[in-house]
Amino acid sequence: MNEHQTLDLRSPWVISIHELVRRPGELKEFHREIPAPANVGIEMIGVPEGSPVDVDLRLESVSEGVLATGVVSAELVGECSRCLGEVREERDFDLQELYYYPGRDAEEDALFVVDEYIDLDPPMRDAIVLELPFTPLCREDCLGLCPICGFNLNDDPEHNHGEQIDPRWEGLELFKAD
Prior knowledge:
Layout (H helix, E strand, L loop, with lengths): L13 E3 L10 E9 L4 E2 L3 E3 L4 E10 L3 E15 L6 E15 L10 E2 L4 E3 L1 H9 L40 H8 L1
Pfam families: YceD (PF02620)
Protein name: Large ribosomal RNA subunit accumulation protein YceD
Organism: bioreactor metagenome
């Protein structure tokens, strides 16, 4: 986001910081439940669109801009990478972002205060997506699926197909039987 961008003020993730602008030392507590936007996650796991995200932030005016620090909490829903079962987990994610005042030197991907508003969507996405498990599991000791028939081994850990003969050696087994 650059310092000349406009924000969609209809978004629940865009909030007013009027009382903080250019008043170093001023604090504002921000607590709200906001519906999750689309595409917060990765292929295997994420936050479902429209599900509640609890935002608990401390907004502090500093000389460079406004510092947002706190926690976002959301329910993750996904698919176990071993057994393909459903994964549901409530998690907290730390969020810390400095929104620079226009005209301040900042890195290319820095966020800015725009007309006394800040957009919490980008740092919320970063906080969540960067902490998501690359291979989510329904439980730590998930046994996965049977490589032969696809049976969920968590349902019956003793599941087996008896002694399997490699098809390349099947002819020798017949010879051995004679």
